[in-house]
């Protein structure tokens, strides 16, 4: 997954402003206690990060 697709999915699910807030402030256990922004900055694959977001927020399987 490209980063552009990742951010598009984030905006689709959370809205523009809230997506940025979730990425910056919400610590996900599925990312080893990192935020989305930290995980991406650390080089984590965008698809792995997206799946962690889906798990944390209980998104339906069709969005994964």
Properties at a glance:
64 residues, mainly alpha, 4 helices, DUF3046 domain-containing protein
Largest sheet: 2 strands, antiparallel
Report mean pLDDT, rounded to a whole number.
95
Per DSSP E runs of 2 or more residues, the count of β-strands stands at 2
Distance between the termini: 11 Å
- Determine the structural class based on helices, strands and strand pairing: mainly alpha
| Tally of discrete structural domains | 1
Pfam families: DUF3046
Protein name: DUF3046 domain-containing protein
InterPro entries: DUF3046
Written account of the structure:
- It is built from four helices and two strands; from the N terminus they run ααββαα.
- It is mainly α and 64 residues long.
- It has one domain (3-63).
- The protein has a two-stranded antiparallel sheet.
- The model has no long low-confidence stretch (mean pLDDT 95).
Brief write-up:
InterPro entries: DUF3046. The chain is mainly alpha-helical and 64 residues long.
Secondary structure layout plus pairing:
Elements: H1 3-14, H2 16-25, E1 27-28, E2 34-35, H3 36-41, H4 46-56
């Amino acid at each position: 997954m490209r980063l552009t697709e990742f951010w598009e999915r984030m905006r689709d699910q959370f809205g523009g402003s809230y997506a940025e807030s979730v990425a910056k402030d919400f610590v996900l256990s599925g990312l080893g206690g990192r935020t989305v922004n930290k995980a991406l900055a650390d080089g984590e694959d965008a698809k792995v990060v997206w799946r962690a977001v889906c798990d944390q927020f209980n998104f339906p399987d069709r969005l994964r």
